Amino acid sequence: MHNIDQDLTSEVSEAFGARQEPHDVLHLEPNVRTFIVTDQDYRYLLQDRRGHVVAGNLPTLPPVSGFRWIDDTTPGLEKGQRYYGLGEKLDDGGYYFVAHDTSPIDTLNESVLETILLGFAAFVFCGVGGGLLMGILVRRRLLLIGQAVQTIQKGDLTARLPVAAGQDELDDLCSMFNAVLDQNERLVESLRQVSNDIAHDMRTPLTRLRHRLQQLVSGPQMEVKSEANLAIEDLDASLEMFSSLLQLAEIEAAGNVTRQEAVDLSEEVNKCLEIFGSAPEDSEHHIDAELVRHIMIHVDVVLLRQLVSNILDNALLHTPAGTSITVSVRKTAGRALLCVADNGPGVPAALLHKLPERFFRLDRSRTTPGTGLGISLARAIAERFGGSLLLEDNAPGLRVLVSFPLSDGRITGRS
């Protein structure tokens, strides 16, 4: 409207002209008649003081100065006609009025309003319809999820939440929950396997213990001490097994707190070799050490020594006299690597992956002392500090590779 006001003001000024002529009907009449012919965008009215139309294409109007609206309620205007104009009273009592036809603007406003209403109706329809459709789809998926949860509650640990192909936020949540279910299934299966292994491996020493105690009751007095010593050995073996299982569970438990510090891996391995002392010579084994110094890792020293001792003890127990064992420490691929290799009978390639399992023992090792948990403990300790344990065929013999992340040598406290 501001632009229309300016246009109307300019139109009135143009009619009066730049000359200092009187603002009266006589001087305006020629200009108004010319405007009527040359400018079809405006409507004009020039009337005298009696209200008679002198020139123009509008009916007579009450002489009101300023901007005003006129419509079909004004006598002489057809139905639907509507104008907005500027009136000016003249010096001789006449009246000059210039108007702009607002019908196109009104039509445009009506069209815009209709468009807005149609758009709003379409938006409401799509919003409500889309919301209802989305609600139905989400409800259907929630029902499927609820059914899966009920199945899991009934004890079926293999059930999983449905994941659609869309991969939306709900799918991501279901995928993360399924990952938790996978982990729980593995833990429960591991617990079931451990229970079976305990039942299997503990049955033999407990049976022997019962038999010996029965012999103590019914046997001669002179054999009591001998049988008692054997019974104590069986109890010690059982206690060692339970102690190893508890320690393994403690190491694998999430949130287990152990004291960690930066240590030289070669120095700790060398200390373990010193602890073994003459044991290799007594069993007629030969140990070669190739230890590169100043390879720092971040671990619990006590657990690290237990890892090394378990691997060395395993090599000494399960290889025959005359076997050579090589212990080396070096850097490789940005990690610290401990390697214990022997040239003994080794392990069949098909069974290498089973060796770190709890209580797993080769048939030929059933008669040797041990719990079958040494390598399991070593792997758990390595993984506890971000490392890994790998078993390879040494052709001949067995090669145990334990890698750790390198440390910058600074102590970071407790983890």
UniProtKB/TrEMBL annotation:
Q: Which UniProt keywords apply?
A: Kinase, Membrane, Phosphoprotein, Transferase, Transmembrane, Transmembrane helix, Two-component regulatory system
Enumerate the PROSITE patterns for this protein.
HAMP (PS50885), HIS_KIN (PS50109)
- Any one Gene Ontology cellular component term annotated for this protein: plasma membrane
Q: Which residues cross the membrane?
A: 116-138
Q: What is its EC number?
A: 2.7.13.3
Major place of localization? Answer: membrane
Q: Does the keyword Oxidoreductase apply?
A: no
**Which InterPro entries does this entry report, sorted A to Z?**
HAMP_dom, HATPase_C_sf, HATPase_dom, His_kinase_dom, HisK_dim/P_dom, HisK_dim/P_sf, Sig_transdc_His_kin-like_C, TCS_sensor_his_kinase
Gene3D superfamilies xref list: 1.10.287.130, Histidine kinase-like ATPase, C-terminal domain
Q: Which SMART domains match?
A: HAMP, HATPase_c, HisKA
Histidine kinase domain ranges (all copies)? 197-408
Reply yes or no: does the keyword Ligase apply.
no
Q: Which domain of life is it from?
A: Bacteria
* Gene Ontology molecular function: any one: phosphorelay sensor kinase activity
Task: Identify the residues that the record assigns to the HAMP domain, covering every copy.
Answer: 136-189
Which compartments is it annotated to reside in?
Membrane
**Catalysed reaction equations from the record:** ATP + protein L-histidine = ADP + protein N-phospho-L-histidine
Name of the protein in its database record: histidine kinase
- Which organism is this entry from? Acetobacter aceti NBRC 14818
Origin organism lineage: Bacteria, Pseudomonadati, Pseudomonadota, Alphaproteobacteria, Acetobacterales
